[in-house]
Amino acid sequence: MKSQAGFTLLSTMLALTVLLFVLSLTTALVQFMNTYFQPRLDSQKEVQLFFAQTANELHQSTSALNTADHQRLTLLNSEGTVSYSFLSPGRIVRRVNEQGYEIVLQHVAGVSFQADDEQVSIYVTDQQGRDFTWTDRLYLRNDADEKQTAE
Predict the structure, then answer these.
(1) Nearest to 139 by CA among 57, 40, 73
(2) Which among 89, 95, 137, 142 counts the fewest CB atoms within 10 Å?
(3) Which residues constitute the domain of residue 54?
(4) Sign of CA dihedral 108, 137, 139, 69
(5) Burial call 106-121: b when 16+ CB within 10 Å, e when fewer
(6) What's the CA gap between 127 and 131, in Å, rounded?
(7) 13-26: buried (b, 16+ CB within 10 Å) or exposed (e) per residue?
């Protein structure tokens, strides 16, 4: 009977050791997954927020222009101009009437602005190499304003 009590204690200690080992591995795995997936979600949310803010500006604009190198987008509205420019340290900056300096998106490896008479497309590549694309239409246009005043 005394030998049985020793084996019960030994098996309990062995089970506790295995449990602690599994818990430490689980903790390490959770920390790894958190550091791996969290920046990806943050980057995606930031880009989506940038696209949503740009959509608001675009819907209030009468025309959109981009530079030949596709690194700058200029939106014209009744109050003036709003421009978005890609700067070398990986930032997209918003300026109103060529004044101010608001960083609207960071950690950008590259961006391309494409504008024509009816729509605007923005292609963003983040520093992890993930690509994001957004396209939207102009709601107000200069020619629509001219048609209304002619009638």
Answers:
(1) 57
(2) 89
(3) 41-137
(4) positive
(5) eebeebbbebeeeebb
(6) 10
(7) eeeeeeeeeeeeee
Question: How far is 116 from 31, CA to CA, in rounded Å?
Answer: 46
Phi, psi at 110, each rounded to 5°: -165, 155
* Measured distance between the N- and C-terminal CA atoms of the chain, rounded to whole angstroms: 106
Does the pLDDT of residue 147 top 80, yes or no?
no
Q: Is residue 36 part of a domain?
A: no
DSSP state of 47: H
pLDDT digits (tens, 9 = 90+) for 60-91: 888 888 989 999 999 998 889 999 999 878 89
Confidence band, pLDDT 50/70/90 cuts, at residue 122: very high
* pLDDT surpasses 60 at 149: no
How many separate domains does the chain show?
Answer: 1
DSSP 8-state symbol, 116? -
Sheet with strand 131-137: strands edge to edge: 108-115, 119-126, 131-137
Within a domain: 143 = no
User: Residue 62: inside a domain, yes or no?
Assistant: yes
Task: Confirm whether 100 is domain-assigned.
Answer: yes
